[in-house]
């Protein structure tokens, strides 16, 4: 009896230690979609099998891995929802292929993740959006009844999560959409679509905070990265963009009044043959908003049509005066720094700062700018309206304020 009780005293603390750490110490549990009936033949719809596997993986108390083996899996439009019971990883080794029949892709997203925390997407595999079957349906500029084409992968209400080692090709619309997320780390992602594919933004961010994008290569038909209303604390570094329309903030001010954009940084990145480099765009006229505290630093431009652009007169389909009285943008742009930006401009006007007459841009800094124009008509120039700012260090083109 004496023996028994002393064992009890020794064992109890060890038991607790093990119990508390069990979910970290145990190897993660694998949920292989093939065990749920998924077939990697590229022609069987696997949506049901994926949803069953997700249900089990999400309900597992502990670390779970939703596993997609090498091979090509055809997958219809699907939403993977939390909240899950433990830390969850979506491991894509193979290729997910999107539907090609129009009736199967009239949805807002192809693969959607929602309400997740401590979630990882990785594996080195491919999302193949099969965009060429859908791009002809992108006729919204002519047809007001047009339906949106699906975003390849969207994250809505996802916190403290990571997306890395993933490739997206030929999305039908945007490749990745980030909405209402907090603390996401995106790195080593590769995004590809043809230069002339319509509306294929690389990564589109809205209403989200603390998003980090690094070591990512994006060549696509629209913006490489776009940051819309409510984007805050966005850190972009070591991104190569091109072809594409550049990295942009906006368009702001069309809806979502007072959802501000602030603390954006783009560092050590390059633009190759893009339509724009760094761009801030607001509607004219617009609702009131604020876009402030942006830092663009150590950026190379290689044959970029418009390397630096602030455009507060954005109105793609005029007339835009639906708010009546004023035709100026009411978005205040403030504290924006362009530092150490060099390379070649494909147009003579390398810097365009067209700010609002109603809300002139404030605290714009240009420091160490060296943008060369090699075409006919002389050296690069800059163009300003309604800008208050200062210039330091080397300035080519000469600053316009
Ligand atoms: C994400 O964080 C927000 C607050 O920052 C919280 O309201 C929300 O419930 C969280 N979502 C998940 C899925 O954990
Ligand atoms: C800047 O980018 C280059 C090339 O993309 C990379 O080799 C280098 O490590 C980066 N520097 C920093 C400080 O991240």
TrEMBL record:
Active-site residues, record numbering mapped to chain: 245
Subcellular location(s) per record: Secreted, Cell wall
Keywords of this entry: Cell wall, Cell wall biogenesis/degradation, Glycosidase, Hydrolase, Secreted
PROSITE patterns membership: POLYGALACTURONASE
Keyword Secreted: yes
GO biological process, one term: cell wall organization
Highest taxon, organism lineage: Eukaryota
A single GO molecular function term of this UniProt record: polygalacturonase activity
Chief subcellular location: secreted
Entry's family note: Belongs to the glycosyl hydrolase 28 family.
PANTHER family, per the entry: PTHR31375
Protein name in the entry: Exopolygalacturonase-like
Organism (species): Olea europaea subsp. europaea
Lineage: Eukaryota, Viridiplantae, Streptophyta, Embryophyta, Tracheophyta
């Amino acid at each position: 009896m004496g023996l028994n009780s002393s064992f009890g005293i020794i064992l109890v603390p060890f038991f607790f230690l093990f119990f508390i750490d069990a979910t970290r110490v145990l190897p993660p549990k694998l949920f292989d979609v093939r065990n749920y009936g998924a077939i990697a033949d590229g022609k069987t719809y696997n949506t049901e099998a994926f949803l069953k596997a997700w249900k089990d993986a999400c309900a597992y108390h502990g670390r779970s891995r939703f596993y997609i083996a090498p091979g090509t899996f055809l997958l219809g439009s699907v939403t993977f929802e939390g909240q899950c019971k433990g830390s969850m990883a979506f491991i894509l080794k193979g290729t997910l292929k999107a539907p090609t029949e129009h009736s199967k892709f009239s949805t807002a997203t192809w693969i959607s993740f929602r309400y997740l925390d401590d979630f990882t997407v990785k594996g080195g595999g491919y999302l193949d959006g099969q965009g060429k079957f859908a791009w002809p349906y992108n006729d919204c500029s002519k047809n007001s009844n047009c339906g949106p084409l699906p975003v390849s992968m969207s994250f809505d209400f996802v916190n403290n999560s990571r997306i890395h080692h993933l490739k997206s090709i030929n999305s039908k619309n945007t490749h990745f959409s980030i909405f209402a997320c907090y603390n996401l780390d995106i790195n080593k992602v590769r995004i590809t679509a043809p230069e002339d594919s319509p509306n294929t933004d690389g990564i589109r961010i809205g209403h989200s905070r603390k998003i980090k994008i690094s070591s990512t290569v994006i060549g696509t038909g629209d913006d490489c990265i776009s940051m819309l209303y409510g984007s805050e604390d966005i850190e972009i570094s070591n991104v190569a963009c091109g072809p594409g329309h550049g990295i942009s903030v906006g368009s702001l001010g069309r809806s979502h009044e007072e959802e501000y954009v602030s603390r954006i940084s783009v560092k050590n990145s390059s633009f190759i043959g893009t339509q724009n480099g760094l761009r801030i765009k607001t509607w004219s006229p617009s609702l009131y908003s604020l876009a402030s505290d942006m830092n663009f630093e150590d950026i190379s431009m290689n044959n970029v049509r418009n390397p630096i652009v602030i455009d507060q007169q954005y109105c793609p389909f005029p007339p835009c005066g639906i708010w009546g009285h004023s035709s100026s943008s009411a978005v205040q742009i403030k504290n924006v720094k362009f530092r150490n930006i060099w390379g070649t401009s494909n147009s003579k006007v390398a810097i365009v700062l067209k700010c609002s007459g109603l809300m002139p841009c404030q605290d714009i800094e240009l420091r160490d700018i060296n943008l060369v124009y090699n075409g006919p008509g002389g050296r690069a120039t800059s163009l300003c309206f309604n800008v208050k700012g200062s210039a330091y260090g080397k300035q080519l083109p000469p600053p316009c304020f």
